[in-house]
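ok so heres the complex, four chains, lmk if somethin looks off
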Amino acid sequence: MRKRRPTIIDVAERAGVSKSTAARALAGAESILDETRERVLAAAKAVGYERNHLAVGMRSGRSGMLGLVIPDITNPFWADVARGALDRAAEADVSLLVFSSDWDPAKEESHLRALRRARVDGAIVNPVSDALDDLDKFGLPFVLIGSSAERFADVSSVGSDITQAVELGLDHLVSKGHHAPTLIVGPKSRLARTRFLNAVQRHSIKRDVDPAQLIVEDGEYTLEGGRLAMLRLLDRPRLGHICVFAANDMMAIGAMMAVRERGLRCPEDVSILGFDGIPSGAFTFPGLTTIAKPGRDIGARAVESLFDEIEGRPEHGRVYMPCRLIDRASLADLSREPRKLAG
Amino acid sequence: MRKRRPTIIDVAERAGVSKSTAARALAGAESILDETRERVLAAAKAVGYERNHLAVGMRSGRSGMLGLVIPDITNPFWADVARGALDRAAEADVSLLVFSSDWDPAKEESHLRALRRARVDGAIVNPVSDALDDLDKFGLPFVLIGSSAERFADVSSVGSDITQAVELGLDHLVSKGHHAPTLIVGPKSRLARTRFLNAVQRHSIKRDVDPAQLIVEDGEYTLEGGRLAMLRLLDRPRLGHICVFAANDMMAIGAMMAVRERGLRCPEDVSILGFDGIPSGAFTFPGLTTIAKPGRDIGARAVESLFDEIEGRPEHGRVYMPCRLIDRASLADLSREPRKLAG
DNA sequence: GTGAAAGCGCTAACAG
DNA sequence: CTGTTAGCGCTTTCAC
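and the predicted structre for the whole thing:
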């Protein structure tokens, strides 16, 4: 039997004013006698008053809560996004309701319903289902995040700048003397594959290397997928050093394992560049050179955009956050040695 | 300008019944004509009614929300805990408000206040400040998690079973022929250090090895801390193979790096056993053998306990969740070779 | 079995 | 500058 929490009435009574005066004082309104305000504030502190946000939300239509629906908080990238969102939200003194969709449309839908029932003021979601199409009639301000958000035109969304990232990676590669990297990309069905491939091709043309000559292997976006792809690559006839640009860090690490499995060495025999910036990349041997997605920034920017959306000044476009290179040890420096054929 | 959300009144009108009847039908009450219930349910679906949890919470005193305050969602262990809690909560159809304390007492306090204002039904927190002492007067059902929770007697808490974990590790070590591991532990000030050390000592005595002969190095609970400790260890005069049991995976990985740095090899020259079970351990070379804390189970169990607490059937004790061994490749098998001096 | 009415704690007119 | 009043949407007596 917990004792009743003090309400604004308790505060008002103790301060000898009316409910509304107390409310105004608590809200820090201007039109109030300094002396009255202080009396109310003192009373509030004395009784241990804490504003009931349920009641506030009910009356004002603002719950002070935001929803965040991401696939898996256990995945380092999404954890990073969540952290960014959490921090930015805390700054603005709003709370975040977090949910894991597990890439399951059914869960996503059920979580979205939960958010609506909770009367959150808006939601940030990495969409898995296409059913989010009629987002407008969803009755909730939205900001989409991640690459899957690009399917939805005219909804605010934020994600990494793949084009810039690929350019960054490719530039770094040529600075190390690698002019036409072999690509390990995701499965054919995935949108991300196309986007990655396109960016590489576009950039290759700019650098006068024929995209058609780029070797491409694909596999699942997993350790094993990368390992298998690398094994296949190693089975091909090849000449000298080989340089691999993997579309994600897990695949890159898998590739690294395949190299060791075949008795070869990284970076001496094969150079590997990853993409994601997962923490584990710091602990592989050699350390994985990779280009990191700005998860935290994405999360923070998403709540920022969501605030805009809620305030009624929507941008309704995609924001691309820049990636950065993490230079570790998985790339050989060939720039001082004789150039290879390509490039 | 978003259109007004349908309320229970809209449902009632459409079904041709009163507010209260509609409410009863929606709540699935017994005392209602089947026919009426169906009419109401149909009406609810027709108008797209979704219960307003703010209003429910206000009236019933149950917000259907729980709070989770952990140091850093970006830390794999805490992400795992969060995941467990998220899943269990979703199962019970309650939402989770998540906050990062960053080991900062000020943030912790402010988050706790936010939770109270949000009128969560209870909170799960990894306590950083000692000020949580008067938890009773906090006006909120609590379940504490993690090792720092052990400071608070007579509050429900759940954490890993360090004793069982150490026993598991030590047993595995002897099965591989290592009888008196060198310990790399945390800084003197930390409670966790003592607990770890105690467990090792207790178990050593049981196996007839004198705890006093165990070599102990300490350092920060970080990569660098582990590296430095290992370097110091390597500087000591030693005979043959050395086996290290690190109190956390980061330190273990740091130690591994130090070994390589000195031109030695793991596991041929030094065996390393970690403690935590972070994902990165799978990607080191060699893969880190470690004992994994059941983060997810801890999170799930914590919301379970919290439900009990809320329902008014508190256990008020600590629950210890068992750890498990992940056997990878950082331990040499000396069991077939001549025994070492110790043990 | 169903309806009418009260009230959870708060804010926002509207008076004074 | 401050008080009074009317709800926000829902559940819950208490009647009928």
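quick notes: Chain A touches chain B through 51 residues (CB under 8 Å). thats all i got rn
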